[in-house]
Design brief:
238 residues, OB fold (Dihydrolipoamide Acetyltransferase, E2P), 2 domains, three-stranded antiparallel β-sheet
């Protein structure tokens, strides 16, 4: 249905027109590629034990877990060149301008991106997951470009040393899953959407009014209990 004549659609259309400049600025920043910015803090009851994480996670409600992370030391090719717009792997050089066949972006730039497999562990079990981009850089304490340059020099990442540093650190991790068939067998893989140092990550616990978006039902969002910081909000209908 194109441009449905219903009140909710008209409200959203008018809101988008009024905030056109802001929306265009956000599109240029491409913050939608940064899950750390987009995702709200989880509430305490939303953090699952690893043993309870389902094989198929609802795409609309990714799973949160808390645990320690170790990097698979057998990781090979821990970076790739991706499109600066859609982040998918491309055959281009770093900083090269090209037309992306995936997203049809005509001014895409070849951008190094980290990628590796990790294991997340808590007291109930473990999950193997892939991690890309900024979350991977958080674990390595290196930029994707630095990882690329290191391997191009014929050097290896000191993964054992990095794991030693990570062994006493816990993370709040958000996961999604993907189901596919491999060699005739159904298989599930997990990907880390975002991760945060558990000692620094505030869990939402209080509520404040929130009326920024055009809505039909009253909505509330949670506020950080310690410092009142409302820069990250969790919004839900009531």
């Amino acid at each position: 249905m194109i441009e449905p004549k219903i009140p909710r659609a008209e409200q959203l259309k008018n809101w988008a027109k009024e905030h056109c400049d802001t929306l265009n600025a956000l599109k240029r920043l491409r913050d939608y590629n940064n899950a750390t910015i987009n995702l709200a803090n989880p509430e305490k009851e939303e953090i699952s034990k690893i043993a309870t994480v389902p094989a198929l996670i609802n795409p609309a409600q990714p799973a949160w877990v808390k645990g320690k992370i170790s990097i698979n030391i057998d990781n090979k090719n821990t970076w790739y060149i991706g499109c600066s717009h859609c982040l998918k792997k491309v055959y281009a050089e770093s900083d090269e301008l090209f037309n992306c066949m995936h997203c049809v972006e005509k001014t895409a730039v070849g951008t190094p991106r980290c990628k590796m497999d990790v294991e997340i562990v808590d007291e109930t079990g473990h999950i193997v997951a892939s991690v890309f981009g900024l979350p991977a850089e958080t674990l390595l304490l290196r930029s994707s470009k630095q990882v690329m340059e290191l391997e191009q020099e014929g050097k290896n990442l000191p993964l054992s040393n990095i794991n030693n540093r990570l062994q006493d650190q816990e993370f709040i991790v958000q996961l999604r899953s993907q189901s596919f068939t491999q060699q005739g067998k159904p298989t599930t893989s997990y990907t880390i959407i975002s991760l945060h140092d558990a000692s620094l990550y505030a869990i939402t616990s209080k509520t404040i009014e929130h009326d920024t978006l055009p809505i039909q039902k009253k909505r509330i969002c949670t506020e950080d209990e310690d410092n009142g910081d409302v820069t990250q909000k969790r919004i839900k209908k009531i």
